[in-house]
Amino acid sequence: MTLFKQHGFVLPLALIMLAILTGLAVTLSEQAHTKMLEIQRQQTSWRNELEYRSALQQIIRILLTGEVVYNKVYLDPLALPIDGQRFKLKGLEVQIQDGAGLIGLGHYEPEWVLRLLSQFCGTEQALRITDELADWVDQDNARHRYGLESIDYLRQRHAYLPRNIALRSLDELLELPSMTPELYNGDAERYGLKELLLTGGVDHLNIATAPAPVIQAVLGLSAQQTRKIISLRNSNNWTELNKLLPTYHRAFGEFGAYNASNLFRIRLRKQNDPALTVLLRLTFNKSTPYEILLWHYPDTYRGWI
C-alpha cells in the first residue's frame, strides 16, 4: 500500500482519497442545496407575479370604470384610495398614487424642488442639488451657481456625464454629486425623494392626493399650514379645506385644486416578498385603454429598497 507522510505521520493513500472524495461530496451537496434554493426562489417569484398581475388587472378595471371623488375611486362596493394610502386587496398590500399628487420633473419649477429638498436637508445641500439637476437636464454649457457641467464631471472622473435632456429614470438623481442614497430612499420615519417625484409626471397638482411635503413645497406653505390641510383632508372636510387654499395657483392648472390625472404609480407587495411597482397611464380613447410605462419586479433596481 502506498503511504503518504504528513506532519510526521504516515497515512495510507486510501485515507487520503477518502478525505478528497468526502470533501468533493460536501461541495457537490452544497452546490445542489444552493441550486435548489434558487429554484424555490424563482418559483416563489413566478407565483407572486401571477398574483400581482391578477390584482393589477382588477385595479386597472376600477380605475378605468370607477368614479373619482377627491382622493378615492369608487366602483361599488369598492373605494380605492389614490393618495398613496396602504390598503389590502386580494391579500396584498397595495398603494396607488395619483401622478398629479407628485412633482413631475418634466413640468416642475426649480423653487418647488428647492423647497422640497429644504424639508429634508440643509439649505446649502438643497441649493447644490437643485442647480446640479438643472445642469444635468439643460442643453447648454452654462454652469448654474452650484451646478456642474460635463467638463466638471470629466475632471472628477465621474462614471456618467449629464444627459442634457430630461431624466429617463428617477434613479439618475443618484448621479448628482450632492445627492445621497439616504435622501433619495428615505426610511420608515420619513419620505424619500423617490416617493415624491416622477421623471415626467403631469403638469398640475392635485391637493386631494399629494403627500404633505409636496403640498408644502409647491404652495410655499409652512409646516403648520400643511398639517392643517392634511388633517382636513383626512376627515373629508373639503369645505373647510377650500377656505385654506388659494383661489388660483399656477400648479392647479385650469381645472382647479382637485383634478386627478390619468397617470398612476401602483405598488403591490406580498408580505415579506419583493414588491411590484408599475407606472400606469390610462389612455381611454386609444385602441388599448391603458399603457404600462414602467414595470419593476422584483422592485430592486438601483436606489430602491
Largest sheet: 5 strands, antiparallel
- As residue ranges, the low-confidence spans are 301-305
End-to-end separation: 61 Å
Rg computed from alpha carbons, rounded to a whole number of angstroms: 26 Å
Query: Structural class given helices, strands, pairing?
Result: alpha+beta
> From N to C, what is the helix and strand string?
EEHEEEEEEHHHHEHHHEEE
Helical region count? 8
Shape verdict? globular
The strand order across the widest sheet is 6-7-10-11-12
Helix content: 25-40%
Beta content: 15-25%
Describe this structure in words.
The protein has a 5-stranded antiparallel β-sheet with strand order 6-7-10-11-12, covered by helices on one side. It has a 3-stranded antiparallel β-sheet with strand order 3-4-5, with helices on one face. The chain is α+β, with helices and mostly antiparallel strands. α2 (110-118) packs antiparallel against α3 (123-137). Helix content is 38%, strand content 19%. The chain has helices spanning 13-65, 110-118, 123-137, 150-155, 181-185, 212-219, 223-234, 238-244; strands at 3-6, 9-12, 67-69, 72-75, 78-81, 83-89, 92-98, 103-104, 197-198, 263-269, 275-282, 290-296.
